[in-house]
Amino acid sequence: MTAAALAAALVLIPADASAAGTVEHRRVVSADPVDTTPHVLDGIVNAIALVGGTVVVGGSFSEVRDAGSSRVLERANIFAYDLATGRILPDFAPELDGPVNALAAGASGTVYAGGAFTETDGAGTRRLVRLRLADGTRVPGFRAQAEGGTVTSLVRSGSHLYAGGDFTRVGGVRRTALARLDAATGAVDPAFSITPGAPRGSRVKVYAMALAGDRLAVDGGFGTLDGLSRPQLGLIDVGSSPAKVADWRTDAYAPECKPDFPSYVRGLDFAPDGSYFVVVTSGGAGSAGKLCDSAARFETRARGTTRPTWVNYTGGDTLYSVAVTGAAVYVGGHQRWLDNPRGRDSAGPGAVSRPGIGAIHPVTGKALRWNPTRDRGIGVKAFLAHRGGLLVGSDTTRLGREYHARIGMFPLP
């Protein structure tokens, strides 16, 4: 797609849009990526945020360049570019000394970054920092620092910033893998003290989070939330004070897939109206009844012990990321197939080829015809749906049968 066509497709995006929830689309995005996105020349993209009309990209990389240019720019694990033109912002070049795993849009032209870094431009910013897009400098009033582990997920909602990972303290306050912070100061919120426990694996970890209204969905390497059985997945009522674990529960992820995958949940995302959410997993080709290497839909307001509304299996390949837009459920990883419940690292009856990226019908749970393809590699680690299309971040260089190194975008037709 040309730059002119992209500009015509985009609509005004609020400057302070937060990262809570997914934008609704009435159609499936085009299978033809836009031509304007820049290229990440090494490493992997782990996270994408949109602040007004600026795309912020985080991961583990050191070099980027504009589309159509031969000039290589140094960027230490984070950079930003203009959504409409694809041009890399020259003045946003903070140096983070470790990978960025998570991003969240902030107010007033800022962005939050979380990961495994300990310094930003030489100053101590353990695993959490807030940056100005105008010049890449730190916002000095934000003082949250995570200790004892990394940050893997961030969600901002108004004056609150939710952080998940495998840390043990934030801002000197004990918080195991999950915390809610003041979005302006980074102070830990005492009204939110939900504690994941019963580790699935070597330690407790929150892998992914998503927010819809008063429900925060969390998944990861835990068996309990505040002592209540919530194997790898739970909902938290953030509308109450103090916040509390919601009555919603499922045993769908209680079984083990393989000893190598004690925790196998990965990405999750709510539908735009919050009525359901989808979880994607790793785990290896499991036996019947286990949700290994799958995408599964759950109803947000279901009562009692909940089973998935539908499950779509890859047949033995990991899915890392999911974006739910209403028109489609986009899934990404290093999968070879969808619609493959009987596959065991093979194409079983009914399997459809969807290398590295695919789309699922939100009602039927069956693969849609959309099949742009991508080089599989490790997989898609980041999706971001916005009003003009779908941004995709990964570790490979071909998307939609074109060269798009590690970052690309499918526009709405």
UniProtKB/TrEMBL annotation:
InterPro entries: Delta_60_rpt, Quinoprotein_ADH-like_sf. Keywords: Signal. It comes from the Bacteria. Pfam families: DUF5122. Residues 1-19 form the signal peptide. This is PKD domain containing protein. It comes from Planomonospora alba.
